[in-house]
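Input chain follows. Return structure tokens only.
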Amino acid sequence: MNEKKHFDCTNCDVYSCYRQKTEFPESCPGGGVNKNDYMDIYKNDSLVSRLINAAAVVDASHDRVQEVIAFAKRLDVKVGIAACLGLINEAKIFAKMLDEQGIENFCANCKVGSIDKNDMGITAGHIPAPGDFRGMCNPILQAQILKEQGCGLNVVLGLCVGHDSLFGMYSSAPTTTLVVKDRKNKHNSVVGLIAE
């Protein structure tokens, strides 16, 4: 196993950043930071302030679905749902739950726009037959549609690795994740970290 070249939070066993009951480690990446450098943003940027305050008061007893709904409710914005088509039934359930809480929402599934993988030259793992349409995920259009719908918070529901990255890059609204796609572990990706 290669030794880490730099001290980071996975090397730390003090975590003075949490309670500040001990000294910061000498190489702590946050130990010498001037808090005024970022406190101005938290206090003076209205969107950032709303987000940090809403996040701070969400009840820790909630499961993730309840937590996202409580967060959205505190923000009082329209919620965009960026859903994988493979989890569209779960997206329908989530949209209904938002409706029941009086939270306006709009869902765009990952295949919007109907781009053919063959047109993009994506043939990995597949030899296309003549006329064989293979819909490519379109996270950029998902983000654009949710922007056009006026969504103030976007919720990712099962987008593939990489597609979620592109969605985040092009999203005009703050984004949170409700479900990460992990087909092997029934969408419970933390299992891969504790299985050993």
